[in-house]
Amino acid sequence: MEEVQQKISFSDLHSLCSAITNTFGFTYVRNSGNVIFVKLNSICTPTVLISLTISSDYINSIHVLGRKINSTHELWNSIPHLSCCVQTVESVLQKLSSYSVCSRLNDSELMSFVPHSTCKSGGVRKCSCSGAHNVDCECIISADCELLLAATGRCGKCY
Known about the structure:
This protein is α+β, with helices and mostly antiparallel strands. Helices cover 15% and strands 21% of the residues. The protein has a five-stranded antiparallel β-sheet. Strands 6-9 form a two-stranded antiparallel sheet. The longest helix has 12 residues, at 86-97. The chain is globular and about 45 Å long.
Protein backbone atom coordinates (compact mmCIF):
# COMPACT_ATOMS: atom_id res chain seq x y z
CA MET A 1 0.00 0.00 0.00
CA GLU A 2 1.29 3.44 -0.94
CA GLU A 3 2.17 5.74 1.94
CA VAL A 4 0.19 9.00 1.98
CA GLN A 5 2.32 12.07 2.71
CA GLN A 6 0.95 14.93 4.79
CA LYS A 7 0.59 18.31 3.09
CA ILE A 8 2.62 20.99 4.84
CA SER A 9 2.40 24.77 4.53
CA PHE A 10 4.17 26.22 1.50
CA SER A 11 6.52 28.28 3.68
CA ASP A 12 7.49 25.09 5.57
CA LEU A 13 8.01 23.26 2.27
CA HIS A 14 10.22 26.14 1.09
CA SER A 15 12.31 26.03 4.27
CA LEU A 16 12.62 22.25 4.33
CA CYS A 17 13.61 22.04 0.65
CA SER A 18 16.59 24.29 1.31
CA ALA A 19 17.94 21.52 3.56
CA ILE A 20 17.59 18.68 1.03
CA THR A 21 21.06 17.21 0.65
CA ASN A 22 20.52 14.43 -1.90
CA THR A 23 19.24 16.50 -4.81
CA PHE A 24 20.28 14.12 -7.62
CA GLY A 25 22.43 16.76 -9.32
CA PHE A 26 19.95 19.60 -8.79
CA THR A 27 20.68 22.81 -6.87
CA TYR A 28 18.10 24.57 -4.72
CA VAL A 29 17.50 28.25 -5.62
CA ARG A 30 17.25 30.12 -2.33
CA ASN A 31 16.20 33.59 -3.49
CA SER A 32 12.81 32.81 -4.98
CA GLY A 33 9.20 32.99 -3.90
CA ASN A 34 8.69 29.54 -5.43
CA VAL A 35 10.51 26.33 -4.63
CA ILE A 36 13.00 25.94 -7.48
CA PHE A 37 15.64 23.31 -8.22
CA VAL A 38 17.92 23.65 -11.24
CA LYS A 39 20.37 21.34 -12.98
CA LEU A 40 23.09 23.11 -14.92
CA ASN A 41 24.88 21.79 -17.98
CA SER A 42 28.59 21.13 -17.70
CA ILE A 43 29.97 23.51 -20.31
CA CYS A 44 32.15 26.54 -19.54
CA THR A 45 29.22 28.96 -19.61
CA PRO A 46 26.60 27.25 -17.44
CA THR A 47 23.01 27.14 -18.62
CA VAL A 48 19.97 25.81 -16.79
CA LEU A 49 19.47 22.42 -18.37
CA ILE A 50 16.45 21.27 -16.33
CA SER A 51 14.41 23.10 -13.73
CA LEU A 52 11.68 22.05 -11.34
CA THR A 53 9.51 24.87 -10.05
CA ILE A 54 6.86 24.35 -7.39
CA SER A 55 4.45 27.26 -7.13
CA SER A 56 2.69 28.36 -3.96
CA ASP A 57 -0.30 26.22 -4.97
CA TYR A 58 2.11 23.19 -4.99
CA ILE A 59 1.92 22.70 -8.77
CA ASN A 60 5.05 21.20 -10.37
CA SER A 61 6.39 22.82 -13.52
CA ILE A 62 9.35 21.40 -15.42
CA HIS A 63 11.43 23.24 -18.01
CA VAL A 64 14.24 22.01 -20.25
CA LEU A 65 16.53 24.76 -21.56
CA GLY A 66 13.73 27.21 -20.88
CA ARG A 67 11.03 25.20 -22.68
CA LYS A 68 8.15 23.93 -20.56
CA ILE A 69 7.38 20.21 -20.56
CA ASN A 70 3.78 19.93 -21.75
CA SER A 71 1.06 18.17 -19.77
CA THR A 72 0.93 15.23 -22.19
CA HIS A 73 4.61 14.29 -21.81
CA GLU A 74 4.98 10.68 -20.63
CA LEU A 75 7.03 11.88 -17.63
CA TRP A 76 3.80 13.01 -15.97
CA ASN A 77 2.66 9.36 -15.85
CA SER A 78 5.42 8.65 -13.34
CA ILE A 79 5.49 11.81 -11.20
CA PRO A 80 2.78 13.75 -9.40
CA HIS A 81 1.54 17.10 -10.67
CA LEU A 82 1.62 18.43 -7.09
CA SER A 83 4.42 18.43 -4.52
CA CYS A 84 2.95 18.98 -1.05
CA CYS A 85 5.81 17.55 1.03
CA VAL A 86 9.57 17.11 0.96
CA GLN A 87 9.35 13.39 0.18
CA THR A 88 7.39 14.11 -2.99
CA VAL A 89 9.89 16.78 -4.05
CA GLU A 90 12.74 14.31 -3.56
CA SER A 91 10.96 11.61 -5.57
CA VAL A 92 10.30 14.06 -8.44
CA LEU A 93 13.98 15.11 -8.45
CA GLN A 94 15.04 11.47 -8.43
CA LYS A 95 12.77 10.68 -11.39
CA LEU A 96 13.95 13.76 -13.30
CA SER A 97 17.57 12.72 -12.77
CA SER A 98 16.87 9.44 -14.56
CA TYR A 99 15.80 11.29 -17.74
CA SER A 100 18.08 12.66 -20.45
CA VAL A 101 17.72 15.84 -22.46
CA CYS A 102 17.15 15.27 -26.19
CA SER A 103 20.65 15.30 -27.67
CA ARG A 104 19.60 17.81 -30.32
CA LEU A 105 18.79 20.35 -27.60
CA ASN A 106 21.96 19.74 -25.63
CA ASP A 107 24.35 19.97 -28.58
CA SER A 108 26.57 23.03 -28.11
CA GLU A 109 27.26 23.24 -31.85
CA LEU A 110 23.56 23.29 -32.67
CA MET A 111 22.79 25.83 -29.96
CA SER A 112 25.30 28.26 -31.50
CA PHE A 113 23.24 28.73 -34.67
CA VAL A 114 22.18 32.24 -35.50
CA PRO A 115 18.84 33.39 -34.01
CA HIS A 116 17.16 33.90 -37.41
CA SER A 117 17.32 30.18 -38.11
CA THR A 118 13.76 29.24 -37.33
CA CYS A 119 11.53 26.84 -39.27
CA LYS A 120 7.94 27.76 -40.07
CA SER A 121 6.96 25.18 -37.46
CA GLY A 122 9.01 26.96 -34.79
CA GLY A 123 11.90 24.49 -34.84
CA VAL A 124 15.55 25.43 -35.31
CA ARG A 125 17.23 25.09 -38.69
CA LYS A 126 20.81 24.34 -39.61
CA CYS A 127 21.76 27.03 -42.10
CA SER A 128 24.82 27.98 -44.04
CA CYS A 129 22.95 30.97 -45.40
CA SER A 130 22.97 34.59 -44.35
CA GLY A 131 19.31 35.26 -45.17
CA ALA A 132 16.31 34.31 -43.06
CA HIS A 133 14.35 32.71 -45.92
CA ASN A 134 16.96 30.47 -47.55
CA VAL A 135 15.34 27.26 -48.84
CA ASP A 136 18.58 25.27 -48.31
CA CYS A 137 18.08 25.24 -44.56
CA GLU A 138 17.32 21.95 -42.83
CA CYS A 139 15.12 21.66 -39.73
CA ILE A 140 17.07 19.82 -37.03
CA ILE A 141 15.36 20.66 -33.73
CA SER A 142 11.61 20.19 -33.86
CA ALA A 143 9.22 22.66 -32.29
CA ASP A 144 7.53 19.52 -30.95
CA CYS A 145 10.73 18.12 -29.42
CA GLU A 146 9.96 15.83 -26.49
CA LEU A 147 12.74 17.59 -24.50
CA LEU A 148 13.22 14.83 -21.90
CA LEU A 149 13.75 11.18 -22.75
CA ALA A 150 13.75 8.04 -20.63
CA ALA A 151 16.86 6.92 -22.57
CA THR A 152 19.79 8.84 -24.00
CA GLY A 153 19.80 10.07 -27.59
CA ARG A 154 17.43 12.24 -29.54
CA CYS A 155 13.67 12.13 -29.70
CA GLY A 156 11.90 10.86 -32.79
CA LYS A 157 10.65 14.33 -33.63
CA CYS A 158 14.10 15.93 -34.08
CA TYR A 159 16.17 15.27 -37.20
